[in-house]
Design brief:
This protein is of the alpha+beta class. The chain has 10 helices and 12 strands.
């Protein structure tokens, strides 16, 4: 049986403006996405009986099953494979093995990333030869962040986040990523934002020109002051200790720091590796987060390894 493996990065939102709740329950957003080099891998092995299965491991040796990821039909990678099979009229099945590095329910689109990698790996293992346009439209049906994770880099997202256009960004940025022990549910965070906004008029979302200008300048110091996230107040309302994590990172001299997407992961922009070590040390010794890693962005989106 043939096997194909794809790797896919995590994403953060450098800016995330959220509009009012739509009739379909989603919110229009205007966001600037960036991929970071924290990668999951999805290995797809074709199976003749039409079944689609998934296993998720957190360790390189693939000995330990990941406790926090569902492996049933609601797993987004399984849904991605099933949807692609329907669209392409494929009857072959697939065994998916995910090697998980991206935090689960962390606001870094780990589930969406695995869906994007699954589309790329299944396109190869089933020898479909589908182009980007078909994969993009399947991706958009699966989740708001999936199209961006197929593309990667730095991009503006509108609609639910699924309409992507590349953003001009100079250089590479170094981030410190502080994860939390327990995830947050994205629908819960959006619902909390609606509750907090109940008595005010929410404007249509816009990407601020300032963040795009900062990206074109390639200056981390400039970009650091421009990071914004409308979901941050909702994530902090549900998880007040995130304020402490942000205060520690910013107090340690990070150029900027925000909750990533719907949280609870917090990300801090730093000048270079040494600055990253200083901020990481302050965060790790503060005990306000579960784990701290350094990462770089932007990087390419879901790509075939073999
Ligand atoms: O698109 P995705 O399945 O990742 O979205 C998960 C949930 O997050 C949605 O069901 C919705 O509650 C919320 N969401 C939203 N507006 C968006 C994106 C997500 O309300 N633009």
């Amino acid at each position: 049986m043939t096997t194909s493996t794809a790797r896919v990065p995590a994403k953060i939102n450098l800016a995330l403006a959220v509009g009012p709740r739509r009739d379909d329950g989603y919110h229009d957003v205007a966001t600037v996405f960036q991929t970071l080099d924290l990668h999951d891998e999805v290995r797809a092995t074709a199976r003749p009986d039409g079944q689609i299965t998934v296993r998720v491991h957190a360790d390189v040796d693939e000995q330990v099953e990941h406790a926090d990821v569902p492996t049933g039909d609601d797993n987004l990678a399984v849904r991605a494979a099933r949807r692609l099979a329907e669209v392409a009229g494929v009857e072959t099945g697939v065994d998916l093995v995910i090697r998980k590095v991206i935090p689960v329910a962390g606001g870094m689109a780990g589930g969406s990333a695995d869906a994007a990698a699954t589309l790329v790996a299944c396109n190869a293992v089933w020898k479909l030869g589908l182009g980007r346009d078909v994969l993009d439209s399947v991706a958009a049906d699966l989740g708001s962040d999936v199209p961006f994770l197929l593309h990667g880099g730095t991009a503006v997202g509108t609609g639910r986040g699924e309409r992507i256009s590349p953003a001009l960004a100079r250089g590479s940025y170094r981030w410190v990523v502080a994860t939390a022990a327990e995830g947050l549910s994205t629908p819960d965070v959006y619902a909390e934002l609606d509750r907090l906004n109940a008595h005010r008029e929410v404007p249509d979302p816009q990407v601020s020109e300032d963040v795009l200008t900062a990206l074109r300048s390639g200056s981390p110091a400039e970009l650091g002051t421009m990071l914004t996230n409308d979901l941050q107040k909702a994530a902090i309302s549900l998880r007040p200790e995130l304020r402490d994590t942000l205060d520690v990172g910013l107090g340690a001299g990070a150029l900027g720091g925000i909750v990533s997407g719907s949280g609870p992961t917090c990300v801090f922009l730093v000048h270079d590796e040494q600055h990253g070590l200083d901020v990481s040390f302050a965060l790790a010794s503060s005990l306000t987060c579960a784990d701290v890693v350094q990462a770089r962005g932007p990087v390419p989106g879901a790509r075939l390894l073999s």
